[in-house]
From TrEMBL, chain A:
InterPro entries membership: SecD/SecF_arch_bac, SecD/SecF_bac, SecD/SecF_CS, SecD_SecF_C, SecD_SecF_C_bact, SecF_bac
Mode of membrane association: Multi-pass membrane protein
Location in the cell: Cell membrane
Function: Part of the Sec protein translocase complex. Interacts with the SecYEG preprotein conducting channel. SecDF uses the proton motive force (PMF) to complete protein translocation after the ATP-dependent function of SecA.
Biological source species: Thalassotalea eurytherma
Gene3D superfamilies: Multidrug efflux transporter AcrB transmembrane domain
Pfam family, one: SecD_SecF_C
UniProt protein name: Protein-export membrane protein SecF
Top-level taxon of origin: Bacteria
Family the entry assigns: Belongs to the SecD/SecF family. SecF subfamily.
Domain Protein export membrane protein SecD/SecF C-terminal: 112-292
Main location as per UniProt: membrane
Assembly behavior: Forms a complex with SecD. Part of the essential Sec protein translocation apparatus which comprises SecA, SecYEG and auxiliary proteins SecDF-YajC and YidC.
Transmembrane segments: 138-155, 162-183, 189-209, 237-256, 262-285
UniProtKB/TrEMBL annotation, chain B:
TM region(s), chain numbering: 453-473, 478-498, 504-526, 547-572, 578-602
Main location (coarse class): membrane
Protein name, as recorded: Protein translocase subunit SecD
Membrane topology, record value: Multi-pass membrane protein
Length: 315, 616
């Protein structure tokens, strides 16, 4: 069975300029949303206390709220989590109570107030300073990844591809952040991990495409750069499609079956896979073209077979 | 011949697969409920302990599967959790004073697998349930304490040098020494800066003050020391908790991570972590009558205490010569006759206090008392754990000479005991206060649910991808599916082999993601083979070229993803590290299975034969 089999190369680069404009526009929207809506940072970043409890019957949120209210926890945010029997209670950083005992206190208040058998599922307490630290570390991690990749791709390919790849990654990260900001989804540690995985995935795609472009620069004569990129993109389209599909299949399994804790992770990655595929075509490749990548840049003086230096490791 | 592997290569691939499968196998056998008994403080579990435990269990007719003694621990396995709980309560009552009795789940790995080092994967707290704490050491306090100690030192030294000073005090800008005239200022500067090389001295001749601030090096050392010392204390306390396989680890410059798997009573854990233990030096009451005291007539100024090692009572004076918070350092070593000893360093007020207290007691025995607040296991009306003050004499050496700021204790027994004593002495003196800044508790029900959800996602994702691959690539799809299956086995095998690797919920997500992305390499290769076939290459040429051309692409793509995974590992903590680990392992194993393994199969089935077409 084959789906993506084209006789003639598709003229991807024709839509290069509108696509670039669209990307810039969407990126700007994301920046605006991040500036105004901000990110809904999770407990990992903001600090505070989170208590997840399980009930035997579907939980009565109004009652829970009134119980908490009457015991002085009026800032508590009470939400269902995953199912109607699971409730998450969030409390901000407090000055008056020793935060490390807050979780147990709330739990006993709930047990008394509702008179029900409540199962403690999870208590998390994060100090404010820890959260700040994490946000800083997370940002630093992103930056480190981008720089390492810039160096590696420049070394293996050419700087124009490296710039294209890194801008594409930046685009993916920004758009995913934008999505979380626009929809107000919670941004926690697992989402940060997903973001780095998005970088990995999108990069995978970009490298495969760039590799083909490099190969075709050597093989295909008498074609202009834009056309070579089109040929390469068409040739790799089948692979891009199938890999995205299998990845999306497993991510859907994760999204629907992985439980509430992993929801944000799956959401970020699902979105990231789409964006990553798009960006390897319309950001990475088209940027390399705009920056003026040409045959001469990629054909080494002594033409060697690709991967020839790895002959011994060859399967 | 094209597309034929030499036999050794095929065998090597099969060998690697077999090894991974072997080490993945322990994960198939569940876990047995067990009780783990390990010695506390001076006590070490031994074969005797094991025999003792076994006879106690037999006497009380508690059935157990087997008991083992290994690595200073006795491990007893049970058929069910009911027996396990009964045994724990019983043993805790009988030998709980000397040994920590902890509930544990021990892998039911068959002996032949355990013999080659096979063990199942370790589960993270989010899967096994338990509590993790992040504690922060208050470094400002540590520095403050060190500076306060120096104030006394400076005073003593200046007095010793007969340099007259108006005052020495600690300020926010360092230690300020005020002097009377310019000559004294110069003299003090010359003397102190030579003596204390880890301080920077700043002379101000206008108001005749000398300011001392710690060098960067000294500040760093002070912080490092405070952290290390707190880790030692926490480790001791955690051992007291009776938790199987606890983890105490430093994280960064001022944090300590504590992971307690399976613990339910987090309130108790927190109390113990925050609890205090301290040391006191007191004189032995040599005039009092021990026998009279034993029969109840204890002199008013004395107290009867137990000695830890011999468990024999000893009569002590109530007056405390020195408290443990003056101890700055304690190290074990050997004296000139290579007998074990403990070297103790006091801060300056402690030094002069001790010197005064000991000068008239040369030749008399002194006692080192270890005081600890231990949870009794009972709770008061408000549900708070009741603590019990436990005082024990850990050593009763004879004072050989007038003691000062640093002295040594001999007669502590073996080298191991000297080491323990040093540890306890250090543990008694908290240099810097610690505070819980992060806590994560996962209930056992949520942990089990997470495992189930994660497994479900992996299985569903895996089956869906397998079906898709067969539909799309037919026979080659089956080859890819074999590779995918082996890849999963290898991830589990490698995870089980690496001691530090822990499976977390994000880690399981990482495995799911790897399942989706691992086929990428095969997709690249298969698409390439199809392309070559379309371009009119022969079957064997197409296979050869397909693998060849896809190889460097796969390598580049995977290396870049590995870079991201490594950075994630470096900055991440706990569950996120788990994700980075599974992702990295998955990338590496998938390169092996997707390239080498599939090639072995493809070569074996289709390679080197005359074929008109391929089932791809």
């Amino acid at each position: 069975m084959q789906i993506m089999n084209f006789e003639k190369p598709i003229d991807f680069m024709r839509f290069r300029k509108p696509a670039l404009m669209l990307s810039v526009f969407v990126m700007l929207m994301c920046v605006v949303s991040l500036a105004t809506n901000k990110l809904n940072f999770g407990l990992d970043f903001t600090g505070g206390t989170l208590i997840e409890v399980g009930f035997e019957q579907p939980a009565d949120l109004t009652k829970l709220r009134s119980v908490l209210d009457s015991n002085g926890y009026d800032d508590a945010v009470v939400q269902l989590y995953g199912s109607s029997r699971d409730v998450v209670i969030r409390l901000g950083v407090r000055e008056d109570v020793k935060a490390e005992t807050l979780g147990d206190q709330v739990l006993s208040v709930l047990r008394e107030g509702t008179g029900q058998n409540i199962d403690m599922r999870r208590i998390e307490f994060v100090g404010a300073s820890v959260g700040d630290n994490l946000a800083e570390q997370g940002g630093l991690a992103m930056l480190t990844v981008l720089i390492c990749i810039l160096v590696y791709v420049s070394f293996r390919f050419e700087w124009r591809f490296a710039v294209g790849a890194v801008v594409a990654l930046f685009h993916d990260v920004l758009l995913t952040l934008g999505l979380f900001s626009v929809l107000g989804l919670e941004f926690d540690l697992t989402v940060l991990a997903a973001l780095l995985a998005v970088i990995g995935y999108s990069l995978n795609d970009t490298i495969v495409v760039s590799d083909r472009i490099r190969e075709n620069f050597r093989k295909v004569r008498d074609e202009e750069t834009g056309q070579i990129i089109n040929i390469s993109l068409t040739q790799t389209l089948g692979r891009t499609f199938i890999t995205s599909l299998t990845t999306i299949i497993v991510l859907l399994a994760l999204f629907f079956k992985g439980g509430a804790l992993i929801h944000g992770f799956a959401t970020a990655l699902l979105f990231g896979v789409f964006i990553g595929t798009y960006s390897s075509i319309y950001i990475a490749s088209s940027l390399a073209l705009t920056l003026g990548v040409s045959k001469e840049d990629l054909i080494p003086e002594v033409i060697e077979k690709e991967g020839a230096d790895q002959e011994e490791m060859m399967p | 011949m094209l597309n034929k592997y030499p036999l050794w290569k095929t065998l090597m691939v099969l060998f690697i697969v077999a090894i991974s499968a072997l080490y993945a196998a322990p994960n198939l056998y569940g876990e047995d409920p067990a009780v783990q008994i390990s010695g506390l403080r001076g006590f070490v579990a031994s074969e005797t302990t094991k025999a003792n435990v076994e006879s106690t269990l037999k006497e009380n007719q508690i059935e157990y599967m087997n008991a083992e003694f290994e690595k200073d621990q006795v491990l007893v396995r049970f058929k069910n959790t009911e027996d396990q709980l009964r045994a724990r309560d019983l043993l805790d009552e009988k030998i709980g004073e000397e040994y920590s009795v902890a509930l544990n789940l021990t892998p039911a790995t068959p002996d032949w697998l355990a013999a080659v080092g096979g063990a199942p994967m370790k589960l993270g707290l989010d899967l096994s349930g338990g509590v993790s704490f992040l504690m922060e050491v208050n470094m400002n306090e540590a520095i403050l304490k060190a500076e306060n100690g120096m104030v006394g030192d400076f005073r003593t030294d200046l007095r010793g040098e007969k340099i007259r000073y108006k005052g020495v005090k600690r300020t926010d800008n360092g230690i300020e020494i005020r002097l009377r005239n310019a000559e004294d200022l110069d003299a003090a500067e010359t003397f102190l800066s030579r003596r204390y090389r880890d301080f920077i001295f700043d002379e101000n001749s206008d108001d005749l003050t000398l300011t001392a601030i710690m060098t960067e090096q000294k500040l760093k050392e002070t912080r490092e020391y405070a952290l290390q010392q707190n880790i030692t204390i926490i480790r001791n306390r955690v051992n007291e908790l009776g938790v199987a396989e606890p983890l105490v680890q430093r994280q960064g410059q001022k944090h300590i991570v504590i992971e307690l798997p399976g613990i339910q009573d987090t309130a108790k854990a927190k109390k113990i972590l925050n609890a205090t233990a301290t040391i006191e030096f007191r004189m032995v009451d040599t005039d009092g009558d021990l026998n009279a005291a034993l029969s109840g007539r204890v002199p008013a100024s004395s107290q009867l205490l137990n000695q830890r090692d011999t468990n024999r009572p000893i009569l002590l004076k109530k007056r405390v010569m020195l408290t443990g918070d003056h101890i700055v350092d304690a190290k074990s070593g050997f004296d000139e006759y290579s007998r074990p000893q403990v070297n103790i360093t006091l801060d300056s007020p402690g030094g002069s206090k001790f010197s005064n207290a000991t000068k008239n007691n040369i030749g008399k025995p002194m006692a080192v008392v270890f005081i600890e607040y231990k949870p009794t296991g009972r709770v008061d009306a408000e549900g708070n754990t009741i603590f019990e003050k436990v005082e024990e004499v850990i050593s009763a050496p004879t004072i050989q000479a007038r003691l000062g700021k640093s002295f040594r204790i001999t007669g502590a027994g073996s080298q191991a005991e000297a080491h323990d004593l040093a540890l306890l002495l250090r543990a008694g003196a908290l240099i810097a206060p610690i505070q819980i800044v992060e806590e994560r508790t996962v209930g056992p029900s949520l942990g089990a649910e997470n495992v189930q959800l994660g497994l479900q996602a992996i299985v569903i994702g895996f089956i869906a991808v397998c079906i898709f691959m067969v539909i799309y690539y037919r026979a080659f799809g089956i080859v890819a599916d074999v590779a995918l299956t082996v890849n999963l086995i290898m991830i589990i095998g490698v995870m089980s082999m690496i001691p530090g690797a822990t499976l977390t919920l994000p880690g399981m997500a990482g495995i799911v993601l790897t399942v989706g992305m691992a086929v990428d390499a095969n997709v690249l290769i298969f698409e390439r083979i199809r392309e070559e076939l379309r371009n009119g290459k022969s079957v064997q040429q197409a296979i050869h070229q397909g693998y060849d051309a896809a190889y460097s692409t796969i390598l580049d793509a995977n290396i870049t993803t590995l870079i991201a995974a490594f950075v994630l590992f470096a900055v991440g903590t706990g569950p996120i590290k788990g994700f980075a680990v599974t992702l990295s392992i998955g990338i590496i194993t998938s390169m092996f299975t997707a390239i080498l393994l599939t090639r072995t199969i493809v070569n074996g089935v289709w390679g080197g034969r005359r074929l008109e077409k391929l089932p791809i």
